[in-house]
Amino acid sequence: MKITVGDVRLFFDVDGAQIVPTDEGFAERPTVVLLHAGPGADHSLYKDTIGPPLARVAQVIYFDQRGDGRSDRSNPSRWNLETWAEDLRMFLAELEIERPVLLGTSVGALVALEFASRYPEQPERLVLTSAVARPVHARSIAVFDRLGGAEAGEVAARYFGDPSEITFAEFMRVCVPLYTRSGLDPEVIARMEMNPEATQHWDRYETQRVDLREEVAAIRCPMLLLAGEDDPAFPVTGVEELAGALPERLLDFRRYPNAGHGVFRDAPQAIDEVVEWVRRGP
Amino acid sequence: MRVQVGDVRLFFDVQGAKLRPKGPWLEERPTVVIVHTGPGVDHLPYKNHVGPALAAVAQVVYVDLRGHGRSDAGTPDDWNTEVWSSDLHALFERLAIERPVLLGAGWGAYTALRLAARWPDAVSKLILSNPNARFVTQRSVAAFDELAGPEAGEAAFRFFSEPTDQTLGTYLRVAFPYVMGPGAATDALVRPEWHFELAVHWSRTEMRTIDLRGELGAIEAPALVVAGDVDPQYPRASIEEVVDGLQDVRVEWYRGARHSVWRDAPESLALIRDFVAAP
């Protein structure tokens, strides 16, 4: 399905009913909105990991951010956290989704943080996977170096120093396979409708100015923060920095050894933990 | 979820993803939109039987029609199949639901048929359970007499000829159990959110005039009709009028099945599922 939100049409998919039959009648379940990694990736990344198990306990809404997947491309000047958070606000309003659980991975988690900082009363809870308060390329390069040797570190440095089609192609070939420890299934990549221009735009312009360390103090809902200790994209040092900026009493921070970016592919037990956390309620 | 469509907000719920991973692709599955029976009940009963069965092969969209369940009530002037079919068509455009399979059950089949006749391109397939093209009072009263006895026949006659809160109440108590079957009738009364004012209003107005026989020929979508032969509210002769009017139709009769065909004849679910899944 698609819905017009401001100046764009956003693609969304749904799994799991909101109202389900029970022995006593009918019960309303929570709604979980999944914010995908990227930019330049799409919602399909969740369809073989956390999406289907979550649909057993909640209504799951997948959607493609502006610029990504099956949603309108819009233009590069709108590919930023502020716009994505406003898109999310309007999307929720158009569909009358009230007090959802927001689950974001990577840049999707930054959208969730931006949104929850602006509208603290809106989300019921946040699940943040591989989230940082600010992307620091030097930290990433160091982890690529550690995981893939000097060549990986150099390729990452070349790409972050000058994101272009050529350096991105090299980054895709050498560095992206290091995102997960268990090996990245090529079919997962093939299923995405990618927008490499959005990825490069993010790494060239947006990463320089994103810094959520102050604003996230405004968040008022419980948060589950998951970090992979071998994540080269958003290294665990950055996740720790974010954890330090979040209200401590609302935070449940869990680290997974031998797990890379997005956690779920390398540490499937994290999927069960998230499902249980959502099912248990606030 | 609820979305603004024209002057009302319509509630809809969804079961089953539209796109599913299949090797290196996302496989696109059909969308089935369920138009609930009525008048005056909501989509909830479909979550017990036909909805989950179809979610195995399709994305299932449940909708509460205007005036029903969790959707806005609107005004009585708009409680008719002309408006309900327009609402659904507008909902498809609003949510970019392209050429869905439309499932109309009992009273919901009036709206489903009307939509498919007005916008033949907007519907890929039709699934109808106990559809009627018009309501023939004497035919239904005679069926209640025959299948449920004179007391039920009398209650049905009174409600059909003078729909009020009182006659509806008696009808629901005495006659309705024969429409659904006794256990199912209690369920159908207790589980959904009823809107009795709408039920009475529609029975006083459009029920007396509706006649889709002349419109059926405009429908292009292939149709599957699953039919119970002992539903006194939607009698066999009236179902046959629909079958006769459709261009591309397969009908499957289930002996002893009442209003909720898939409840009384669960084997019909496999037939419906295969019809949806077929290319």
Describe the 3D structure.
The complex is a heterodimer of chains A (282) and B (279). Chain A is built from nine helices and ten strands. Chain A has helices at 51-54, 81-94, 107-118, 137-161, 165-174, 186-191, 196-209, 236-245, 269-280; strands at 2-5, 8-15, 19-21, 26-28, 31-35, 59-63, 101-105, 125-129, 223-228, 251-256. Chain A is globular. The two termini of chain A are 29 Å apart. The mean pLDDT of chain A is 97. Chain B has helices at 50-55, 81-94, 108-118, 137-148, 150-161, 165-180, 182-190, 196-204, 206-209, 236-245, 261-264, 267-277; strands at 2-5, 8-15, 19-22, 25-28, 31-35, 59-63, 101-105, 125-129, 223-228, 249-254. In chain B, 54% of the residues are buried. Chain B is globular, with a radius of gyration of 18 Å. In chain B, the strands form two sheets. In chain B, strands 1-2-6-5-7-8-9-10 form an eight-stranded mixed β-sheet, sandwiched between helices. A two-stranded antiparallel sheet of chain B has the order 3-4. Chain A binds chain B through residues 1-3, 9, 13-21, 25-26, 44, 47-48, 51, 55, 59, 62, 94-97, 186-187, 190-191, and chain B through 1-4, 9, 13-21, 23-26, 44, 47-48, 51, 59, 62, 94-97, 190-191.
